[in-house]
């Protein structure tokens, strides 16, 4: 890791504060790249490796990376995304015998394995609690995704919470004991990054990185690696309960299966209304982001002056039994545990020459939880089909954002200010 950090500074010419974009699946190189960049004093922005050109363009336009680390299959997408954004970044590609490094790219092995670590240089890097370490991107509930500034203080607080036995599932590695954790939750996502990767490395756990989920691969890991902890999203929990190849032996060493969360230490939930009255939940915690990257307006809309984060969740509090979540204010669709913003899909649909207007909602799906459904108004005199629009969107977004259904309508219900009435659309669908 220190060799990689030194190479970023000396061979690639980066300075503290420069941004390194990391577009990798879960793999052994991910922590070396991410933590090596931090050791060099850089800021890391993580990108989903199944993103398309348009999505990469938006993220690099916002963060302006000087170096971009990826895998061979993503290279062309990265090149086009950087060109669109007019960003001149050096591209480092992970060496893979099955997929040669493209011409013009820098081999990962050249900067991670050759040379020596310069600890005198690296030890001079100063980091403060309020300095930004990571910039993952949100799902963008009211528009395009936004960069979320995660500070070193946020990371330290999260690790401290996981060190607390009351809030933590992994146990410290001691003697011949070591927790074994399959990592299917993506490291580019904040939960996979902070909880699955950083939190478990801090306890010395053995992590098994799965670059992509498949039932056969996951069950093979359960069979051969004998994990002790499983972190899953609802679709995987359903698979474990229903798949015909799941056996009791797969869980012989499993101590916990985690799907959800426990109360977090040092968190303060603010009740806007009186007890048992429904209202929006505000949360204050040392793990809450610093703000949205280069987006002061969105930051002010999400964080109060006294540091509370507006969750977008509706709920109420009963002193005897606790806090209840009842609904969402923010308009997100949860697909296979990933958040999809209707506004992003609507913007793409409206860019189609035959579309006058569009609205997107989430509809139930037995396996995925929810999937996007679009309601579309055609332009006068223009013809298009559901299949054409589905393909149009699929060419521009990651696969989990693809639109499952399209219904053509004459009107989309809106408020007097033009806000889409999604609940009315859901009633129409039902």
From TrEMBL:
GO molecular function: long-chain fatty acid-CoA ligase activity
Compartmental location: Peroxisome
The keyword Ligase is annotated on this UniProt entry: yes
Family: Belongs to the ATP-dependent AMP-binding enzyme family.
Gene3D superfamilies linked: 3.30.300.30, N-terminal domain of ligase-like (3.40.50.12780)
Taxonomic superkingdom: Eukaryota
Residue ranges occupied by any AMP-dependent synthetase/ligase domain in the UniProt entry: 4-275
Transmembrane regions: none
Protein name per the record: 4-coumarate--CoA ligase-like 7
Keywords, in A-Z order: Ligase, Peroxisome
Residue ranges annotated for the AMP-binding enzyme C-terminal domain, each copy included: 344-419
GO cellular component: peroxisome
Swiss-Prot/TrEMBL GO biological process terms: fatty-acyl-CoA biosynthetic process
């Amino acid at each position: 890791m220190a060799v990689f950090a030194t190479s970023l500074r000396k061979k690639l010419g980066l300075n503290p504060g420069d941004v390194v974009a990391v577009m990798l699946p879960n793999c052994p190189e991910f922590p070396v790249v991410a933590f090596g960049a931090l050791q060099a004093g850089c800021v890391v922005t993580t990108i989903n490796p199944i993103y398309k050109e348009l999505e990469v363009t938006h993220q690099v336009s916002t963060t302006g990376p000087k170096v971009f680390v990826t895998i061979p299959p993503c290279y062309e997408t990265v090149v086009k995304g950087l060109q669109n954004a007019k960003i001149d970044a050096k591209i480092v590609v992970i060496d893979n015998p099955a997929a040669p490094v493209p011409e013009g790219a820098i081999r990962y092995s050249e900067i991670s394995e050759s040379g020596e670590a310069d600890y005198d240089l690296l030890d001079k890097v100063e980091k403060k609690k309020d300095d930004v370490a990571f910039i993952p991107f949100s799902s963008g509930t009211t528009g395009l995704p936004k960069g979320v500034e995660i500070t070193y203080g946020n990371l330290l607080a999260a690790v401290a919470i996981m060190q607390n036995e009351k809030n933590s599932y992994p146990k410290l590695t001691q003697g011949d004991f070591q927790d074994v954790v399959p990592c299917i939750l993506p490291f580019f996502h904040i939960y996979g990054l902070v909880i699955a990767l950083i939190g478990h490395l801090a306890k010395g756990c053995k992590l098994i990185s799965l670059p992509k989920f498949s039932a056969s691969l996951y069950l093979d890991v359960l069979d051969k690696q004998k994990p002790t902890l499983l972190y899953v999203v609802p679709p995987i929990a359903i698979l474990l309960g229903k798949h015909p190849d799941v056996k009791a032996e797969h869980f012989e060493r499993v101590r916990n299966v985690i799907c959800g969360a426990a109360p977090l230490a040092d968190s303060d939930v603010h009740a806007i209304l009186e007890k048992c009255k429904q209202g929006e939940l505000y949360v204050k915690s040392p793990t809450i982001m610093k703000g949205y990257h280069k987006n002061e307006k969105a930051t002010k809309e999400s964080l109060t002056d006294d540091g509370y984060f507006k969750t977008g969740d509706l709920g109420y509090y009963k002193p005897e039994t606790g806090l209840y979540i009842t609904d969402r204010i923010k308009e997100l669709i949860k697909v296979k545990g990933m958040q999809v913003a209707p506004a992003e899909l609507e913007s793409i649909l409206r860019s189609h020459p035959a579309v006058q207007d569009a609205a997107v909602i989430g509809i139930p799906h037995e396996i995925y939880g929810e999937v996007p459904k679009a309601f579309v108004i055609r332009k006068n005199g223009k013809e298009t089909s559901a299949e054409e629009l589905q393909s149009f969107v699929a060419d521009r977004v990651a696969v989990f954002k693809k639109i499952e259904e399209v219904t053509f309508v004459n009107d989309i219900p809106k408020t007097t200010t033009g806000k889409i009435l999604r609940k009315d659309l859901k009633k129409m669908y039902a």
